[in-house]
Structure formats: C-alpha cells, structure tokens
C-alpha cells in the first residue's frame, strides 16, 4: 500500500512539474455569433500549426481557446481571462478588427504580446507596443482596390456603401475613397458615400441613391460577408450592373452561397490564394489542408497558421516565454510563412503583398498579386 501511495505521489509530482513547465498561449476567436465562420476557419490554421509544433524550447505548449462570441465587450473580457486566469505568455487574436481592437487594448495594458492574424484596421496596433499583426492594413488594402478600379477597370467614378457599426468597414471605406479621389484627381469622383447598419436586411434606400448617381464601380467593404452578399443581390435586382468591389471579408464561402449569380464578376482584395506562389511553404500547406478538410484553404486559416508560427519563431529567438522578451524578438522578425514573407514596420504591421481575386462560374478565382513594398 505504501509503495502504491509513493507511486501515486510521484506521478502527481511529475504531472505538476510538467504542467508548470508548459508554455501557455491564449487564443481568442468568435466561435459563435455573426463572425463565427471566420473564427472557425482561423482555428483550423492554428490547430494545424499546433499539430506540427506542439513544443518549443523543449517545453510543451498549452493552447487555451476562448470564444469571444462575436461581441466587442466579450472580446475584451476573454483577453482579461486569458491573462489573469490562465497566465498566458502571448495571445493569438481574433477574426474581425471590431473584436481585435478591444482585445489588443487589454493585452497591451497588461504587457502581454497580442498577434492578430487578419485584423486590418490600423487601430489594432496603433500606440500598442505589445500588439502585432501578420496581415496588411486597410490604408494599403483600400489603396490597392482603388488602384485596381482605376487602372484595371478604367473607373472614373465610384460609390461606397459601408457598415457604420463596424470599425473595419468604416476604415476601409475611408481609405478607398481617399485613394480613389487622389488617383482620379477628381474631388467628386466618389459620387455616393453612404452607410448602413450591420445586420440590416433591406438596402433599397442606399442602392437607389447609388443607381441615381450611376457610378462606374461600387465598393462594398462589408464587415459581415452576409451583408455583402445581400447588397449584391439587391443591387442586381434593382438593375445595377456595375462591377462590385470588396475587401478581405468577401473571401468566405458564404459570399457565393448567399450571393449566387449576383456576385459573379466581383473583385476583392485578400491576403492568400492556394494558386498564388507566395512562398515555398504555400504548396505544402495547401496540400496538407486539402487532405485534412477536402477543400482549398482561404486566407483565414493561412494567416492564423502563420501567426502561430511567427510567435513560435519569436519564442525560440527570445529563448524565453517572457512577454517582454517575446515582444523584442518579434520586432526583428523576418519570417517566410505560407502567406509569404513577414516583417514588421515601425507600427508592428506586416509588410505583405495583396492578392486580387474574382468570382467566376460560382468559384473564387485568382487574378493577380500586388506587391506591398
């Protein structure tokens, strides 16, 4: 009996020592609510990366994933829990800039590293030394789409319809308008700049105003992909035939599932495509993803995968799980990921290329890559 008790005590002691030796990484994603599809796709990338690299510095990695429920307040709350309850060394952030901004704010105040895979709004990292991102930002994305409209589609006028309740949508709309006006040299080139409330079902009033103005292109930086699909359908029903343009939130299957033929011929910017040779790591990742999920990966799993790997690379170079040491290592990152080369500028935003895609015959199609530097 005594030997048995000693054995149990030894096992428990080893378990406690093993747990104490873990490096704890937090993950916050919208696994329920309006942004759930984005969060679930992001989790695929993180889980794939974790399966490949479950240890670092000779220590096991423990992932703690909390659902922020697609809610801004909950996005801040779960980051607080990850820091205070689970004592994480770093946090891999959420889908949606609207959720990333409050989450990054809390992490930064607590001096815990926060890496956003796909948040493009500048406010996610602005004035937050502990916040980083592995994607491009909206000033670049807005400029890319304005250039594509003017140079490739020969557009001289545009309309913008955006979600006033969504930080991502508000920001991207602004940057597109600013770039389009500069590129055309016409202060009145954006003929309609009109808002809607996220989750609305009827966009008739806004689209009627756009129809009356008759612009060459219509930019729809929707925060929720379902909104973009409904806007496209209602635009076509009203007889609007202009090319529709969007941002990276369009790069989800829901766009085609809901929008159907209405989104045919639309163009949008994103950060990844299975057919774009962004690095020598792209093809192996795509093949592994196809085998696991029986479909091509979009930008969300690719960027989430890269965010995890960039964090692990920084921990290795820091030789520590101390947040401040990880932060300093991240500043000197020069990492080749599945979505391309990743370096950080003075604002800790990734210098990345943009991918332009279109919808053809009910499928997403790669168009071109526009360089980020």
Automatic annotation (TrEMBL):
Alphabetical UniProt keywords: Signal
CDD domains in alphabetical order: PBP1_ABC_LivK_ligand_binding-like
Xref: Gene3D superfamilies: 3.40.50.2300
InterPro entries linked to this entry: BCAA_transport, Leu-bd, Peripla_BP_I
Domain Leucine-binding protein: 22-360
Source species, domain of life: Bacteria
Chain segments annotated as transmembrane: none
N-terminal signal peptide: 1-19
Entry keyword annotation includes Lyase: no
Pfam families membership: Peripla_BP_6
Family note: Belongs to the leucine-binding protein family.
Protein name (record): Amino acid/amide ABC transporter substrate-binding protein, HAAT family (TC 3.A.1.4.-)
Organism: Fervidobacterium gondwanense DSM 13020
């Amino acid at each position: 009996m005594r030997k048995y008790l000693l054995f149990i005590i030894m096992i428990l002691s080893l378990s406690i020592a093993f747990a104490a030796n873990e490096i704890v990484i937090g993950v916050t994603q919208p696994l329920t609510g309006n942004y759930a599809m984005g969060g679930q796709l992001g989790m695929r990338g993180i889980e794939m990366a974790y399966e490949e690299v479950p240890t670092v510095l000779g220590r096991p990695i423990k992932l703690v994933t909390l659902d922020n429920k697609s809610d801004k307040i909950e996005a801040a709350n779960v980051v607080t829990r990850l820091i205070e309850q689970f004592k994480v060394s770093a946090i891999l952030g959420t889908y949606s800039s609207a959720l990333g901004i409050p989450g990054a704010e809390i992490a930064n105040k607590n001096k815990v590293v926060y890496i956003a895979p796909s948040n493009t709004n500048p406010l996610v990292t602005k004035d937050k030394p502990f916040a980083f991102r592995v994607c491009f930002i909206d000033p670049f994305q807005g400029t890319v789409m304005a250039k594509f409209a003017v140079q490739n589609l020969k557009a001289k006028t545009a309309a913008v319809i955006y979600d006033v309740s969504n930080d991502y949508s508000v920001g991207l709309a602004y940057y597109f308008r600013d770039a389009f006006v500069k590129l055309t040299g016409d202060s009145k080139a954006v003929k309609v700049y009109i808002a809607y409330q996220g989750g609305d079902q009827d966009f008739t009033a806004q689209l009627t105003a756009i129809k009356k103005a008759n612009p060459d292109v219509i930019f729809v930086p929707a925060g929720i992909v379902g909104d973009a699909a409904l806007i496209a359908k209602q635009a076509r029903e009203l007889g609007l035939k202009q090319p529709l343009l969007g941002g990276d939130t369009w790069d989800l299957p829901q766009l085609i599932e809901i929008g159907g033929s209405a989104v045919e011929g639309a163009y949008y910017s994103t950060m990844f495509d299975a057919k774009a040779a962004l690095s020598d790591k792209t093809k192996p990742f795509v093949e592994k993803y196809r085998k696991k999920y029986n479909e091509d990966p979009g930008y969300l799993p690719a960027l989430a995968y890269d965010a995890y790997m960039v964090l692990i690379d920084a921990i290795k170079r820091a030789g520590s799980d101390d947040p401040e040491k990880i932060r300093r290592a991240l500043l000197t990152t020069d990492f080749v990921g599945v979505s391309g080369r990743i370096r950080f500028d003075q604002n800790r935003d990734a210098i990345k290329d943009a991918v332009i895609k279109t919808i053809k015959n009910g499928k997403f199609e790669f168009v071109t890559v526009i360089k980020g530097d």
